[in-house]
Amino acid sequence: MSVVHIPRRVQEFGHGQELAEVIPLHGEVRPARARRPWLGYLLLGSGLLLLPWLSLLAAGLTGPANTPEAWVGLDLLEALALVTTGLLIIHRDPRQILAAAATAPLLVVDAWFDVVTAAPGTDLISAVVLACCAELPMAAVCGAVAVRGFARRG
Asked: Which residue spans traverse the membrane (predicted)?
């Protein structure tokens, strides 16, 4: 911990004597408590499970110029964000707050784009189910991690 020594005059020790007072520059830095390490493993596993899905997605998507690359890029970014957030939670790293804050909107945007661009019928039904059962709940969890972490930090 960094400290600053500031001399001050203390009357009870006599005239003109100076003592050094130790004043901490910041509070003690403690790692965020991982009350729920399973949450980190869940996010890590979800991100890792997206990787095989990305290869299927890249092979099967067709569309206007650069549309498949955009989908694969968004899902790859989402997978990296989930893996990063999961690892930071597992290791009790305080940066988990920032990672979770970045991951939550990625999940919401992916869910939104999946639903809005799905073809009517079974594609739309599967997009809504995936959004409601996976992407939006994980976004809510990541949002809660971020909000609680920022609240604890002051």
From this structure: 38-58, 70-90, 97-113, 125-147
